[in-house]
């Protein structure tokens, strides 16, 4: 089973590129972030036409997440990260598909830091850890994917100096991510690429793509039940270089049935 993640940076603006990627790679599950549309504006029919069922959690102009499943609908799903009933941002959705629990998230960016946005990021990560601990305790085969907006290690960025003051690389962000891993999750891309140098994001500015000035913030975490089934993980880097592409490249993990 191939489970993929793609920060699409506006589903309407990138729809041709998204459908192109789906046709070429055909993941069983495709998790999308930053769909940037309200629920009623989500183009579900576009995916039904090519054999994908969709669930989504939208928000006007910002954020928003969706999960596409190939051929069959999800068995069950829920929207929103528990722990703060006043949080109205659409950043979290989860479902069950063919015996695997799939969590799709768009973690807050946190810039500028310090400040309320960075505080919100860290609080969100605490809530995420609580939810993921529940899934670990239930011993459910689980894959957690998405844009985590965390650069875990120096080897995951083209220039440590250039990103030193960014919320993505602050010690507090890295520590919160490390605590997730220490609970028992396996970072699929990081595990298979221990030397680093694998990017998932290149900014639109300053020729970042052309100069390969990127970093890794799109992650795939596996519960122990899924880590034992890990076959491969990678980045569809070539799709970042296409016309009107997202500033992220799709990432994917492959599990044995």
Structure description:
The longest helix has 22 residues, at 116-137. 23% of the residues lie in helices and 26% in strands. The protein has helices at residues 15-25, 44-48, 116-137, 171-182, 188-192, 224-227, and strands at 2-7, 29-33, 52-57, 65-70, 76-79, 92-97, 100-106, 142-147, 186-187, 201-202, 214-215, 218-222, 230-235, 251-255. A hairpin with a 7-residue loop joins strand 3 and strand 4. The protein has a single domain (2-255), classed as Deoxyribonuclease I, Chain A, CATH 3.60.10. The model has no long low-confidence stretch (mean pLDDT 97). The chain has 257 residues and is of the alpha+beta class. Helix 3 packs parallel to helix 4 (171-182). The chain is built from six helices and 14 strands. Strands 3-4-2-1-14-13 form a six-stranded mixed sheet.
Features:
single chain; 257 residues; alpha+beta; Deoxyribonuclease I, Chain A; 6-stranded mixed sheet; 14 strands; manganese
Q: Helix and strand succession? A: EHEHEEEEEHEHEHEEEHEE
Q: Which residue ranges are poorly predicted, with pLDDT under 50 across at least 5 consecutive positions? A: none
At the first level of CATH, the class is Alpha Beta
Write the CATH homologous superfamily.
Endonuclease/exonuclease/phosphatase
CA-based shape: globular
Total beta-strand segments: 14
**What is the count of distinct domains?**
1
Tally of helical runs: 6
Structural class: alpha+beta
- Kindly, what is the distance between the CA atoms of the first and last residues, rounded to a whole number of angstroms? 6 Å
Strand order of the largest sheet: 3-4-2-1-14-13
Give a quick account of the main beta sheet: strands, pairing sense, barrel closure: 6 strands, mixed
Helicity range: 10-25%
Overall pLDDT level: 97
Q: How is the CATH topology named?
A: Deoxyribonuclease I, Chain A
Q: How much beta, percentage-wise?
A: 25-35%
Oligomer: single chain
Proper CATH architecture: 4-Layer Sandwich
